[in-house]
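Checklist before submission:
- one chain only
- standard amino acids only
- sequence pasted in full

Submission:
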Amino acid sequence: MSKQCKIVEDLLPLYHDGVCSEESRQMVDEHLAQCEDCRKMLGQMDCELVSPIVKDADIKPLKSINKAVKKGKKKALIAGISIALAVMIVLFAGASIWWYAQEYTYYAAFAEGKTPDSVYEYNEDGSIKQAVVVDADKYTWYDGTYRYEVTVPSFLDSGYVSMTRLDNNEAEQSDLVICRGEGNKYLFHVGFTGTEHFWYDTDGLIHSPYFMVDTALNLYFPDHWTEDTRQEMTAKFEEYKDEVRVLVYDAMAMWPFIK
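Returned file contents:
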């Protein structure tokens, strides 16, 4: 990771929420146009795990502890602690079930039938002797056109799915990151790399094509985008719509469960 990447990594949360300064936003825009890793980091922010909300009613049993201490009732204190522990166990169990149903199974489906990232030991004749798994949560494979990358989340973490189009020299041409939208809708974050795709706005800021679409190619926008940016990217989408359609349809062909 370069020094500039580290600086941009620190700024990305502010940039994502639209609260950084104009100078910082311009610097991040210019860097994102040229750095795939940082673009993926920004896209992944839209996919970050959201923890279940703990309602006020869930913590009411905890208040009984304080009352028991003040009244000096040992039995009530023990009962309050027991209730608090029970609530914590229930909340933890609920979070675990939610994570498994909403995060683990969602991303594990993308890696089904694939082997984790491994290094191989070869026989003298060139055949594979054995595979040594280097990361059981990460999967990478190729099909001649795309490089596919899937991270199946570890406990209470979030996952990641991407599909990168390569040219004959394995140079990256475009990126597609898959996230879950509202109501478990599949959303695709699509970006194009290479200087031939860059353009400058009236303020001299550099931009590269970035679109967020669903399976029907309906456009979505990050909340922090201005109306001018949305209009500009909507117009740009018409120019790239056919290329975006190919990427989305190829993703749906790779993972037929995407509807």
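Reviewer check: The longest strand covers residues 172-180.
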